[in-house]
Amino acid sequence: MDLTEKTVSELEAPVVDMDVDRSAVDSNIDKKYNRGRVHVHARAMMPEKQLFSYAEYRAQEAERIGYSQYSYWKSVWRNFLKKKAAVIMSLVFLALFLFTFVAGAIGKYDVYNLRIDNSLMFISPNSEFWFGTDNMGRDYWAQVWCATRTSIMLAVSVSLGQIALGVLIGLVWGYVRKLDSFFTNLYNLIDNVPTIIYMTLIALMLGKTTLIMGVAMIGFGWLATARNVRNLVFMYRDREYNLASRCLGTSIWRILARNIFPYLVSVIILRLALAIPGTIAYETTLTYLGLMDISTPSLGILLRNARSYFLDYPYLLIFPAAIVSIITITFYLVGNAFSDACDPRNHV
After folding, report:
1. How many CB atoms lie within 10 A of CB 338?
2. Domains of the chain by residue range
3. CB neighbours (10 Å) of residue 82?
4. Contact 329, 89 (CB under 8 A)
5. Angle, CA of 335, 337 and 342, to the nearest 5°
6. Which fold is adopted by the domain 73-346?
């Protein structure tokens, strides 16, 4: 029998039981075929256990084949750190906010125990009064940093409330078609009347406290965010994966949270970053018009009081205006950089 016939006969032979121990293989065959280069024509004479081996199946290892090390938020953070200017400005804002708590401790006067002293009116900045004194002879350093802390906390709280309410209403407004007419009419009703009229009525009827005016700013500040989110939801609601989710019986809130909301993160972050300095500017306007309580110092109150003395005592306006400018520039740069970092299209 030649080599070809022997090969055919071996292929037609019954399959060898793979449960046989490898140690049972003839040692002479192991020595012949385990070392050195095996001749091509001699492979037909090798035992099946020398030619083939089972590939064991393990569920955990199989899942690792499709596993990716990609993390969305890690990628966001990595892209954000590439924006050096935004990183520096975010550190500047963090240092500014933390310093508002330290300034009172290192200052010589307590903002809550300042006394009116007409003999100390309009003293320029010096070693005793680091930011000078105001028109009532009170230390301006303590007032500026207390006002900064109050304005930042108010602006962040109001902005978060506006964005959260706007995103929630915008998601429902854009996805549930039956509610589109209701929210559109509500939007037109509120938007067509100047907001300052609503704020004036609330201040006169309910009071001018910081809490009441903050809630009022949230109640009328969600419009732009809701409108923007609603238009974006219209773009994503009828895509194939959302249609498939609806066919599978997935709840509306799960579709909104898992399928649509991630596409809106970059837009929401940008609007939040721009809303914070916008809230400070709006609070300044309300204070200027006398619609905010002046018992608690804020940057708006300081700017309002300094408008009459700017030409003669410019430092009264320079210090709070400089802090407002730093906050505005900081959130503009950080907001744009973080919004770009949140866009999945910028991830590698």
Report:
1. 23
2. 3-65, 73-346
3. 12
4. yes
5. 90
6. MetI-like fold (1.10.3720)
CA angle 297, 112, 110 (to 5 degrees): 110
Note whether 335 and 272 are within 8 A (CB).
yes
Taking the C-alpha atoms of residue 128 and residue 114, their distance in angstroms, rounded to an integer, is 14
Q: Which of 72, 77, 102 is nearest to 87 (CA)?
A: 77
CA distance 87 to 102: 23
Distance CA(206)–CA(212), nearest Å, equals: 7
The pTM of the full predicted model, rounded to 2 decimals, is 0.71
Q: Is 139 helix (H, G, I), strand (E, B) or coil?
A: strand
- Mean pLDDT of successive 10-residue stretches along the chain, which has 348 residues: 46 45 47 49 65 67 60 82 90 91 86 84 89 90 91 90 92 88 90 89 88 90 90 85 83 82 84 86 82 80 84 89 89 86 74
Strand partners, 153: none
Query: Could you give the CA distance from residue 84 to residue 280 in angstroms, rounded to a whole number?
Result: 26
Q: How far apart are CA 11 and CA 33, in angstroms?
A: 19
How many Cβ atoms from other residues are within 10 Å of residue 91's Cβ? 12
The string of pLDDT tens digits covering residues 189-234 is: 888 888 889 999 998 898 888 889 899 999 988 988 999 999 988 8
C-alpha span between 170 and 245 (Å, rounded): 20
The alpha carbon of 187 is separated from its chain's Cα centroid by a whole number of angstroms, namely 26
Give me 38's structure tokens: 């095996």
pLDDT given for residue 14 in this prediction: 47
Residues belonging to the chain: 348
